Amino acid sequence: MAVAIMEEARFTVRSPFEPLVAVEREVLDERSFQRTIAFERKRTERSGDPFLLMILEIGAESAEKVGLLQRMAAILLDFSRETDLVGWYRQNAILGMIFTGLPMGSEGSIRTIIVDRVQGLLGRQLSPEWLGQIRIGTHFFPDDWDSSVSHAPMNPVLYPDLATGHKKQQPKLMVKRGIDVLGSLCALVCLSPLLLLIAAAVKLTSKGPVFFRQPRVGQFGKTFTFLKFRSMYLDNDPSVHREYVRKLIAGGAERQPSKEGGGVFKLANDRRITRVGKFLRRTSLDELPQFFNVLKGEMSLVGPRPPIPYELQAYQAWHRRRILEAKPGITGLWQVTGRSRVTFDEMVRLDLQYATSWTPWMDIKILLQTPLAVIRGSGAC
Fold first, then answer.
1. More confident residue, 128 or 35
2. What phi and psi values does residue 336 have, to the nearest 5 degrees?
3. Running DSSP on this structure, what letter comes out for residue 305?
4. DSSP codes joined into one string, 142-194
5. What backbone torsions phi and psi does residue 99 show, to the nearest 5 degrees?
């Protein structure tokens, strides 16, 4: 139970990275502690069992700061459970503590109990002067994402490994950005006559603007305005799609018949779509304005498809990784291998496979496969 969070005993525990070897407990260094946060987060994504990350900082700068933090680390390690981990969130600057095995549905009370016990423990060991300089922050996972806000809802404290991985991939990301800019500029110039023709067809066959603008969720949960050629009538009811998406993510959507056989996961007989819109969707021509999103840096040529904000409300914790680990793209591994023929979970796995193994050469291969996938229209309708 949560009331037994702090036990006055020293334990020998297994390292989270060497589970078969018993080792004496120690304060983890920054690299090991951040790896542990990622390990616990991924474990929680699958099991649903929450954990709490506590961050402890010293507000005042002083020559004694590092020594005090080291003393605090030793105190917390001595009086913590064997399932709790103490380490450096930032080496010799910020302490962290991970509390695992917590009951679900009691986030508020758990925070209060743990903070009170830690403050009481430190208060018995440190002077009031230093105690007043300690800042304690708590971060619960799974965390709630507010999909209604326009800024990034992701809590970066819980994802230090993403920032580290991003820095390591910086040279490759610069190459990727170069391909994005060059590729989207060439596409817009070469396809400009087709873009004008599509714009005229959309405008002349139904009332409304040429472009459809919609908030979408990009990397790290940051929203942006997503562009497409409008393929629907004005003033349509989005609740139909919202309900279908909820069923699709939950695994309750039915396959619809397709010409290729096997069926696809698509909203059938959607009366909101115009006649021109049906053609544009079947040929993926409605996606062409997204080259502007690529030029602005909101999307990449290759990456996971960006979700609509209300989709996040139905996501499981592990589904979120598809918008955290890679910038969204116009095309991707899902589009050239599965598209609407696969379930939502299978799509997420393809996105994660891409995010963890992508290279500039892999992007080029996906781009070269995309025209054939579009011509075949496999899974598009």
1. 35
2. -95, -5
3. P
4. SPPP-TT-SS--S-GGG-HHHHHHHHHTHHHHHHHHHHHHHHHHHHHHHTHHH
5. -105, 115
| Residue 68 burial class via C-beta count within 10 angstroms: exposed 0-12, middle 13-18, buried 19 and up | middle
**Rounded (10°) CA dihedral 257, 259, 260, 266:** -40
Domain ranges of the chain: 2-142, 161-376
Distances (CA, A) of 62 to 128, 129, 134, 136, 247: 16, 13, 13, 18, 56
The Cα angle at residue 227 between residues 320 and 302, in degrees rounded to 5? 55
Nearest to 176 by CA among 87, 294, 91, 313: 294
Across the chain, mean pLDDT equals: 83
Q: Say if residues 82 and 104 touch (Cβ distance below 8 Å).
A: no
Task: Give pLDDT tens digits for 245-291.
Answer: 888 888 876 665 555 555 555 666 678 889 999 999 988 999 999 99
Q: How far apart are CA 317 and CA 343, in angstroms?
A: 17
Write down the pTM of the prediction. Answer: 0.79
Q: 142: cis peptide before it, omega within 30°?
A: yes
3-state secondary structure of 19: strand
Per CATH, domain 2-142 is 3.40.50.20? no
E strands present in 1-67: 12-15, 18-24, 51-58
The average pLDDT across 89-101 equals 92
Cα angle vertex 140, ends 149, 346, to 5°? Answer: 70
Over the stretch 125-138, which tens digit does the pLDDT of each residue have?
Answer: 888 887 888 899 99
- Helix crossing, 170-190 with 160-168: angle to 10°? 70
Q: Tokens 């891409």 map to which residue?
A: 354
Ranges assigned E (strand) in the chain: 12-15, 18-24, 51-58, 85-90, 94-99, 134-141, 211-217, 223-229, 300-302, 329-331
Mean pLDDT confidence for 302-311? 92
DSSP annotation of 319 reads: G
- Three-class HEC string of 332-371: CHHHHHCHHHCCHHHHHHHHHHHHHHCCHHHHHHHHHHHH
Using a pLDDT cut of 70, give the percent of the chain over it: 84
